[in-house]
Amino acid sequence: xxxxxxxxxxxxILPTVVFLGLLFVVPLIQTLWLAVSDNGVPSLANMQxxxxxxNFGRSILNTFLLTLAVVPIQIAMALAMxxxxxxVNGGRETILWIWTIPLGISDLAAGMVWLSILQNTGYLNTxxxxxGLIERQTAWLTYQTPVALxxxxxxxxxxxxxxxVMIIIVAGLNQVPxxxxxxxxxxxxxxxxRFTRITLPLIRPALQSALILRTVLAFEVFAVVYALGGxxxxxxxxxxxxWQNQNQNYSVAAAYAVLIMVISxxxxxxxxxxxxxxxxxxx
Amino acid sequence: xxxxxxxxxISARRLLLWSGIVALCAWVLVPIYxxxxxxxxGRSGVYQWPKTILxxxxxxxxxxxxxxxxxxxxxxxxxxGAAGITVTLSILLGAPAGYALARYDFRGKDSFRLLVLxxxxxxxxxxxxxxxxxxxxxxxxxxxxxVGLIHTVLALPFAALVTQGIFLGVPRELEEAAWVFGCTRxxxxxxxxxxxxxxxxxxxxxxxxxxxxxEVFAASVLTVRHRTLTAYLLTVLSESPMHYRFAxxxxxxxxxVVFIFAVRRYLFAIWGISSK
Lengths: 283, 276
Hints:
The complex is a heterodimer of chains A (283) and B (276).
Chain A: H1 8-35, E1 37-38, E2 41-42, H2 45-52, H3 56-86, H4 92-100, H5 107-118, H6 123-130, H7 146-174, H8 178-186, H9 191-202, H10 204-219, H11 223-229, H12 236-246, H13 250-274
Chain B: H1 2-47, H2 61-67, H3 72-103, H4 109-118, H5 128-138, H6 144-168, H7 172-180, H8 185-214, H9 217-222, H10 229-236, H11 242-262, H12 267-274
Helix pairs in contact in B: 1-11, 3-6, 3-8, 3-10, 6-8, 6-12, 7-8, 8-11
C-alpha cells in the first residue's frame, strides 16, 4: 500500500476502538473502582461484605465444582463427536446440524427444557416410575436434594454448551492433514496412538480456544441454575445479580464481578501456559 | 474365513459408530421435543401423571394463550429490537475493522488484535453492572437501545475477527484489478469485494443476532419495564405456572434454531477462523 494512504486502516478500526473503549474498557475500570472504594475513597468494605455473606463460600464452591464437572465432559464429548463424524460420509451435514442446534439455545431456555424433564410430574420421574425404581413422584430440584440438583444443572449445562466446543474442535480436526494419519497407519500405529500422538497435538490451538471460551462461560453460569433451582443453588453471577437487583447494592455486586473476572483471567492464563501452541508446528 | 470374520468385525464397528451417532442426536433432540410437549400440553398436561411420551392432548391453544399474556409479545418485540441494533452495529463497526486487519499492515495492528482478543477472557455481560449508573445518567437505562449497545460489546469482537477471515478469503488480486480498470477504492470494495463476502457477512450477522437474542444477564440488569424476552421470562419465572415456563422456553428456542439452520454451512468455517 502506498505511504500517503497509511491513515486508512486507522480510520477503519477507529469506530471499533472507540466503541470498545467506551463500553468495555471504561466499565471495566468502573467495576474495579466500585469494588474497591466506598463513597469515593479506597476501601475494602465491599470485599469484606462479600466475603462475610452467608452465600459467598457456597457460591464459590458451587461455581468451581460445576465448572470442573462440566468442562472436561464437554471436551471429551466434543472429541468423541468429532472423531465419529469424521468416519461418516453420507449424512454428515445433517448430523452436524442436529448436534449444533443447542448453540442457538440460551441458558435460560436450556434450564426450562430440563425443568420439563426433572420436575415432579416430569419425564424422569415417569421413566423411573415405569421401571419400578420409585413408588411416587420424587422431587429432585430442592435444597434438600443438593446432589440431584447439582447433577441436573450439570446435565443441562452439558446439553447446551457442548455444541460450541464441538464446532471449534471439528473446525480444528478439519485442518489436520489426512497424510499424517495415513502415514501413522502405515507404520502400524493403533487408533488410540494415532489419536493421542497425532490428532491431539495437532488440534492444540482449537483445544486451547475451546477450553478458554467454555471455562469463561462456565464461570458465568446463572440463568440455567436459576431456572432449575431458583435460589437453592447459589453461584457467583447469581449472587452478583441479587446484590444488584434485589439489594440495590452496586458496590458489592461489583466486588463479585471483579472476583469473577479475576478467576476468568486466571483460567485463561493457565490454559495459555499449560497448552503451549507452537506456531511453527501448526498444520 | 478370516475375511468373513473381518467383515463382521467391521460391520460391528459401524453399528457401534451409528448407535453412538443416533444416541447423541437423540440426546439433543428429545429434550426439545419434551419441552414442546410441555408448552403445547397446557395446565392439564403439566399435572398428568405418569406422562406419556406420545403427543396426546396437545394443541396450539395453550401456547397462543401464553403469547397473549401481558408483556410477552412486547418483550418479544424488544428482543427483536435489541438484536436488530446488535446486528447493525456489530457489522457496521466490525466489518471495516476486519477489512483493515485483512488488507493492511499498520503500526498498532497487534495491539488492536490484542484488545479484541482480550474481550474473550472477560465475562462481558458482567460489565452491565457498572453501566447501570452511566446509562441512567445518559437516559439509556431501561431502553432497548441500551441493551443493544451492551450486546454489541459481546458481538463486535467476534464480528471483527470473523470478517477478517472472510475478507482474507477474497483474493486481493481481484480488488487490485478493479483499481487498474479505474475503480476507486470504495467502488472496488462495493462492486467486487462486498458481493463475494456477502454470504459470510450474513452468517456473521445471524450469529450477532443469536448472541443478543439469548443473552440473559445484561438484559435483566439494564431493564425494568422495557424487558427483552429473556429478561422478562427470568423475572416472572418464580410466579409463572410450569406450562408458561415451558412455553417461554420454546419461544426462546424456535427463532435461534431456524437461524442456526440457515447458516449451518458457515458454522465450521466461521469458528475455524475465529478460534485461530
